[in-house]
Automatic annotation (TrEMBL):
Transmembrane annotation, as ranges: 72-91, 106-127, 154-175, 181-206, 218-237, 243-263, 343-363, 383-406, 436-457, 469-491, 503-520, 532-551
Superkingdom of origin organism: Bacteria
Protein source organism: Pilibacter termitis
Keyword annotations of the record: Membrane, Transmembrane, Transmembrane helix
Record-given protein name: Uncharacterized protein
Length: 562
């Protein structure tokens, strides 16, 4: 027990120190405020010790809150489903059913769903593909600890801390339904039993062959799909159909089984074969996430595009441009056919939408039902925020930036002449212009569809409204052409291997994605939709202006290889 406690304290100390050092490191990289933060914090051991103690104590209430929220959600789902099922079953009877939260079935359903949920997530453990397991292996590797002993300690430690965190919410649940003993003991015992059974299973030689069999992509899909359907089927059967009862006898049986399996699991531990499978799954997962990250950055599409590049007539470009402008225009010229092909598919979809609108109008015209569909000016303004989502999905800016980095900047940034202020600002202006021109047909196609709908189905739409729609379209095009390029020049998040090394870049891109998705909901904060469209358009223009000024002042210092 003392060994586990010392291990827990050391791990908590390391995690807190790593968090503080990492936080300080990234804060020092934040523009504007980063230079004012002193690096002496790394040597301030007394301060870091105090903050570490605070973080240790804050960790417990955070865990308790997290576990309490899980139990609350489980109880809420159980209560809602139980009442819905009760109402459906009593539909033929003349009874006035109201929502019941004190029914004992709700308590049993909560325990059952919690148990099955733990069982479902334990499946990642037995196939050696658990994210927490990967972190624990990394920890053991970094500090040269025994993999087997470290995994056992981590899982036992996690079981104890999470079980203590579950005591409070399940105690409240037990008091509410007068099943305190069952409510407190069953969740802890069942989690211990599942962990023990999992450790016993993965120690068997035949199970290693099962892990290898399930490693294939096709088998992984089948296993995941079958497991998900089986989970829902068992959940429905053990709640709605049978309504499993968690009695005191069942609790004692579970407790005895958990104790007996603990001896067996402790004796077996983790085998070297299972540890090897963890490393294999970890490497595979990292490869998948790397590919996914490249896709998000546009690298995958850029790599594929570079394989299809064709020779072009470039004499005119050599005669017209020189220096950095020559490189930019050469690169754009060589990829123009690929860009046009991608643009063609996007425009084809917009043309198809245009034809659907025309055919729909003609159908209503011939059936004398044109009055059944009308579009007011308010309807148009309510729809306009959706352009953010459409352009986020169809804009070519992300891929353009990736191609510039992979096929030009990655090599050229090693040369001093390419990092001069004049060369950087000139390349930024050229690339912004090219990106804007390439994205314009997409925005133009969207606006044509909008104006067509207004012309055919519009009702009392003013010229000022049409002008605002046009201004909004131009502003959104400017935003999506500028944003990726702006972040690229200011943060330059990629290293020589093409990997993103800047969390601020990832955070801003994530926030931008969230804004694009939630933009439709943000307009509900404005009672006047015209005002919202106007405000967003003006904010976009101001963002581009401020961003352009920032590029002129900061890009010569930030546009470097990491």
């Amino acid at each position: 027990m003392k060994g586990y406690l010392n291990f827990f304290l050391k791990v908590t100390q390391i995690q807190a120190t790593t968090f503080l050092n990492g936080l300080w490191f990234w804060l020092r990289r934040v523009p504007l405020i980063g230079k004012s933060i002193s690096p002496k914090f790394y040597a301030a051991y007394d301060l870091k010790t105090g903050l570490t103690v605070i973080l240790k104590w804050l960790k417990l209430p955070v865990i308790v809150f997290n576990k309490s929220l899980q139990v609350l959600v489980t109880w809420g789902v159980s209560a809602i489903v139980y009442n819905v099922v009760t109402i459906v079953r009593n539909m033929d009877k003349e009874t006035n059913d109201s929502f019941q939260f004190a029914a004992p079935e709700i308590f049993h359903w909560t325990i059952t769903i919690f148990f099955l949920f733990c069982l479902f997530w334990q499946m990642d453990f037995i196939v050696a593909s658990n994210g927490k397991m990967f972190k624990n292996i990394d920890f053991a590797k970094r500090y040269r600890l025994s993999y087997q002993e470290t995994l056992v300690k981590f899982y036992r430690m996690d079981l104890v801390t999470s079980s203590l965190a579950y005591v409070l919410p399940f105690l409240i649940l037990g008091l509410g339904y007068r099943h305190v003993f069952v409510a407190i003991v069953v969740p802890i015992v069942l989690r211990l039993l599942l962990l023990n059974l999992s450790m016993i299973l993965v120690a068997q030689h035949f199970w290693i062959k099962v892990i290898d069999f399930l490693h294939g992509k096709f088998m992984r899909w089948i296993f995941t799909g079958a497991l998900t359907m089986l989970y829902f089927a068992i959940t429905v059967y053990c709640t709605v159909v049978v309504s499993m009862q968690w009695t005191g006898v069942l609790t004692w049986i579970s407790l005895v089984l958990a104790i007996l399996t603990s001896f067996k699991a402790t004796k077996l531990g983790f085998t070297n074969e299972f540890i090897e499978r963890i490393f294999i799954k970890k490497a595979y997962t990292e490869e998948v996430f790397a590919k996914l990250g490249n896709q998000n950055m546009g690298f995958t599409a850029a790599e594929k595009s570079s394989q299809k590049i064709e020779a072009t007539n470039e004499q005119e470009i050599f005669e017209r441009y020189s220096g950095g402008q020559l490189l930019n225009h050469l690169l754009f010229k060589r990829y123009s056919k690929i860009f046009k092909k991608k643009l063609f598919y996007r425009l084809a979809a917009l043309v198809a939408l245009f034809l659907v609108v025309i055919v729909g109008y003609l159908y209503l015209k011939f059936t004398h039902a044109t009055g059944a569909v009308t579009v007011s000016e308010k309807d148009v303004y309510v729809f306009l925020p959706s352009l953010f989502v459409v352009l986020y999905l169809t804009s070519l800016s992300k891929e353009i930036v990736s191609i510039y980095y992979l096929r030009c900047d990655k090599a050229m940034l090693n040369y001093p002449f390419y990092r001069t202020k004049q060369a950087i600002l000139q390349s930024f202006a050229d690339r912004l212009k090219q990106s804007f021109i390439l994205n314009t047909p997409i925005v133009l196609g969207l606006l044509i569809n909008i104006f067509t709908i207004i012309f055919l189905f519009g009702k009392q739409i003013s010229m000022g409204g049409l002008a605002l729609i046009l201004f909004y379209g131009v502003a959104v095009n400017l935003l999506f052409s500028f944003h990726e390029l702006f972040l690229y020049y200011i943060l330059q998040p990629f290293d020589k291997e093409g990997l993103s090394k800047n969390p601020i870049f990832s955070f801003i891109n994530g926030a931008f994605y969230l804004f694009c998705i939630q933009n439709y909901n943000f307009q509900t904060l404005f009672s006047n939709k015209v005002l919202y469209v106007a405000v967003v358009s003006i904010v976009i223009v101001l963002y581009v202006i401020v961003g352009f000024i920032t590029v002129q002042k900061k890009a010569p210092q930030t546009f470097r290889l990491k």
